[in-house]
Design goal:
By secondary structure, the chain is mainly α. The chain has 11 helices and 2 strands; from the N terminus they run H-H-H-E-E-H-H-H-H-H-H-H-H.
Length: 226
């Protein structure tokens, strides 16, 4: 089945954007020109532009100097889109906890080592601010702190791509039944691992940081296999 005309036009414009032929901040051709070039109606052009805007690829402004412009990359929006995609995959049973942990191993362990080598004093402040108390804090607080801690480790690598790719991993949900089946002492162990990793990062001990990250994920895999 042939895709609708607005989808074909959106695909064509998306390819121009992702290939770099249209640069961030650059104005797209005006609607009448797109109509002539693509042989479609103005309503079809507008539908294609709305689709691109919903994907955060363009921004549209009104007025004499208005128009549709290629959006500048936004890490938060990109990360949110990745998080949404991962959650949808996990809910469809195409991605399971084992898949998620395998990806976390590939990213978190080297990130811990890089964070230890490159961290700044500001990174240490951010890491300390992401700690939680397993004896006092509620589950929601601990989940939020857990995500914030690993995002802070990714940020400490100094490589923005680590932060972009890893942040969505900690917002994937697998349902209450999985969280409630965790063994006693789970969050106390997670807290202890985080504190040990912070000590390694503070001391710029890259090898020890990676070892802590590896053992941390080994424990999480064991706890979730019960």
């Amino acid at each position: 089945m042939r895709p609708p005309a607005y989808q074909l036009l959106a695909d064509e414009l998306r390819e121009e954007i992702t290939s770099g032929r249209l640069q961030p901040g650059e104005r797209l051709p005006p609607e009448p020109e797109l109509c002539v070039r693509s042989g479609v109606s103005r309503s079809t052009v507008r539908e294609a532009l709305r689709l691109l805007a919903s994907q955060h690829l363009i921004v549209t402004t009104r007025g004499v100097t208005g128009g549709s412009f290629v959006a500048h990359p936004d890490a938060d929006q990109l990360s949110e889109a990745l998080s949404t995609g991962l959650t949808l995959l996990s809910n469809s049973a195409e991605v399971g906890m084992a898949d998620l942990l395998e990806l976390r191993r590939a990213l978190e362990i080297p990130a811990a080592g890089l964070a230890a080598m490159r961290r700044t004093d500001e990174n240490l402040v951010e890491l300390r601010g992401a700690m939680f108390d397993p004896d006092l804090d509620e589950l929601a607080t601990m989940l939020t702190a857990h995500a914030a801690f690993h995002a802070a480790v990714a940020s400490a690598t100094g490589n923005p791509l680590f932060e972009l790719v890893t942040r969505p991993l900690y917002h994937v949900t697998y349902g209450e039944e999985l969280v409630e089946s965790l063994p006693d002492g789970y969050w106390a162990r997670v807290d202890a691992d985080h504190r040990e990793l912070l000590t390694c990062v503070k001391g710029r001990d890259s090898e020890a940081a990676m070892d802590v990250g590896r053992r941390h994920l080994d424990y999480i895999a064991m706890a979730n296999a019960r």
